[in-house]
Structure formats: C-alpha cells, structure tokens
Amino acid sequence: MDHARGPARCRFRRVDNHDRSLTTRPCKYPDELRERAVREVRTTGRPIAHVAKDLGIHKEALRGWMRQAEADAGERDDRLTTAELEELKQLRKE
Which pTM was predicted? Predict the structure, then answer.
C-alpha cells in the first residue's frame, strides 16, 4: 500500500481546486494494480472490459492505461510518453 495515497479501499478524497474550493475526486488506483492490469491484457489478449471487470476497475481507466503503455513502448505516436509528460510538467513548473 502506498501511504501517500491512502488505503486502496478509498473511494473519494478531497482535493483543492485552482479556485480554492474543495471537491471530491476518486482516488487513484495503486501503481501495482495498473501494471498488473496492463500486463494481463498484453499477455493474455483478453478484452480490456473483461480484465477490468475481473480486477474491479473501470474499463475506461484500463483503456487509458493501455494507450499510455502503448505510447511508452513506441507503438503509437498520437500521445506523449510518460517521460515526455514528466518533462513537460517540469518545464511548466519552471
């Protein structure tokens, strides 16, 4: 369990918006679950919706993770890789 994010059973957390109001937002899935789900889709060839249902995650979340994994592997060029996204985030901070 990643203590920075809280327990995996967390459904919602309070976040501070740019306008300083507080709202609720679903907690992120643990990185281990993301990796497991992507690996299972890739190795088994099962449909994303079936793997998502078996693991108890939303199918659109898994679909996005798959797209990002494909970008990171150089299999698609319509989105930035994780490294490029991190670099962009850092540049915007500066």
Answer: 0.69
